[in-house]
Amino acid sequence: MNVSESSPACSLGLPSSSDDGRTCSKAPEVASVRVQLEMQSLWRQFDQLGTEMIVTKAGRRMFPTFQVHISGMDPAAEYVLLMDFIPVDDKRYRYAFHSSSWLVAGRGDIAAPGRVHFHPDSPARGAQWVKQTVSFDRLKLTNNLLDDNGHMILNSMHRYQPRLHVVVVDRSRDSQRYAHRNFCTFTFPETRFIAVTAYQNHRITQLKIACNPFAKGFRTADSENRHSAQCQTESAGLSLPWSEFEGSPGCEDQRLQHQPHCRSVARDPALRTPMAEATLSYSAGTDSSVDRRDGGSHGHFYGAPVFFTVPCQWDGLSRADRSLIG
After folding, report:
1. Residue 44 DSSP SS3
2. pLDDT digit string (tens) for 190-213?
3. What is the 8-class DSSP label of residue 266?
4. For residue 300, what pLDDT band results from cuts at 50, 70 and 90?
5. CA-based nearest residue to 150, from 59, 224, 64, 82
6. How far apart are CA 93 and CA 97, in angstroms?
7. Are the C-beta atoms of 221 and 209 separated by less than 8 Å?
8. Beta strand segments in 108-198, E
9. Which end of the chain is more exposed for a tag (fewer CB within 10 A), N or C?
10. Residue 177: pLDDT band by 50, 70, 90 thresholds?
């Protein structure tokens, strides 16, 4: 299991009870909490290329999905898990295609309204959180400032850092007084990304198609296109009616199976010697119309005009013999 562990940090913009400003006193229910990032190697692959996340008006899910494994929770205590996104800096970026890199384009836009995303299972006891991977697969990113669906609002072409907050539920009357002690914040540098409305780096696109299980259709279509192009290249010198079978692994075998006369020519050396030039013309393009008048299905296929040699009844006959046959 590829994981990256993060220790709790004082954050979330709440006051700290520390004396020197560098350490904080946390409640025992959260002081021992540890969080491990799932799919760390995949996140690092994206991070090396410069992770991009699509934002849309309707909202788009993240990939890779933010998933973590949590340990050290009090089994009996209740916890709330939530996420937010903070700008890494105050800059706006643009992608330079000639150098395949991100460059600073100027000062960043005004920060979008701050929002948090609560995990739908919150609140839950520590025993439930630690027994399985926690996934924020329902979280969506949007660039719609007027969004009323609870999606995370981000500015396009800005860099963001996701943060995970673990908050212990304190039901005491004076819980607000000790609110700063009841939470821990976890960040993973490899999860940083730039929000975009369309992927800029083609390598990011390729990696997402290769790794995202929901992109299976793109992988299948790309594979079929490559295979079809390969068969078309192999048969570029000969366009025949049975070209419909091109695109399958046994292109050549299927051609021969549907052309028994040509198969016998190819296998019988005696028939290769006496050959005459014959012309077979076919209309350009392919007509796959179906005639069902007799209750059957007959496909009609037409290829481009071609020329090739086939055995002829005149082969082997002298001129005198030919004159005797009409």
Report:
1. helix
2. 999 999 999 999 999 999 999 998
3. H
4. very low
5. 59
6. 13
7. no
8. 117-118, 124-125, 134-135, 140-142, 152-153, 159-168, 183-187, 193-196
9. C
10. confident
Centroid of chain to Cα 196? 15
Query: Is the model more confident about 52 or about 14?
Result: 52
Sign for the pseudo-dihedral over CA of 218, 224, 228, 234: positive
Ramachandran bin of 209, using left for φ above 0, alpha for ψ from -120 to 50, beta for the remaining angles: alpha
Mean pLDDT estimate for the chain: 75
DSSP H/E element including 229: helix 216-234
Q: Distance between CA 52 and CA 62 in Å, rounded?
A: 10
- pLDDT cut 90: percent of the chain above it: 52
- The helix (run of H) or strand (run of E) holding residue 31 is helix 28-31
The answer to whether the beta carbons of residues 42 and 51 sit under 8 Å apart is no
Cβ within 8 Å of residue 154, ≥6 positions away? 55, 85, 112, 141, 142, 143, 160, 195
